[in-house]
Amino acid sequence: METTVFDIAKYILHQRGQMSTMKLQKLCYYAQAWSLVWDDTPLFDEDFSAWRNGPVCKPLFDVTKGKFSVTEEDEPGDIAKLSPVQKRTIDEVLKSYGDKDAQWLSRLTHLEKPWQEARGNDSFDDRSDRIVTKESMGLYYGSL
Fold first, then answer.
1. Measured between alpha carbons, how far is 73 from 71 in angstroms, rounded to an integer?
2. Which 3 state secondary structure label does DSSP give 78?
3. 29 alpha carbon, distance to own chain's centre
4. 54-56 and 131-132 beta bridge pairing
5. What is the pTM of this model?
6. Nearby residues of 136 by Cβ (< 8 Å), 6 or more positions away
7. Which of 28, 51, 104, 143 has the largest CB neighbor count within 10 A?
8. Bridge partners (DSSP) listed for residue 55
9. Using CA atoms, how far apart are residues 87 and 66, in angstroms rounded to an integer?
10. CA-closest candidate to residue 124, choices 35, 40, 54, 42
11. Bridge partners (DSSP) listed for residue 132
12. pLDDT tens, residue order, the chain (144 aa)
């Protein structure tokens, strides 16, 4: 049973409650990044794009589009699909990043290589759908 970004988002909202859609995006991003490092496997197949405010998973964006904040009930995912290892990884990410606000998390992603490399020479104001690769995430966060 493969998990999707929606399953991860629903679990994050279950654990932390209502939050802004931007914060949810960043927490899903960091959950994916650290799963690649700690568990040597992605939590989900969906990719993140290097948008202006940091990495954004377009399928998740499409579901939450037009909303400033979301709750567990807003997400179509299924927490039951997550393994104990996946839950443990997400819980560790939430311990480190969960109390930070969306702007802080966005600024942090801007300081990190995976987003910077995907943006390339784009100015901050340029739109970009370039993929932040799982390989770049694994390499960068694995080196920290």
1. 5
2. coil
3. 2
4. unpaired
5. 0.97
6. 113, 114, 117, 118
7. 28
8. 50
9. 28
10. 54
11. 48
12. 699 999 999 999 999 999 999 999 999 999 999 999 999 999 999 999 999 999 999 999 999 999 999 999 999 999 999 999 999 999 999 999 999 999 999 999 999 999 999 999 887 777 888 999 999 999 999 999
β-pairing verdict for 69-70 and 54-56: unpaired
CB-CB contact of 78 with 38 (8 Å): no
Q: How many residues does the structure list for the chain?
A: 144
HEC secondary structure over 19-61:
EEHHHHHHHHHHHHHHHHHHCCCCCCCCCEEEECCEEECHHHH
Helix (H) or strand (E) holding 132: strand 131-132
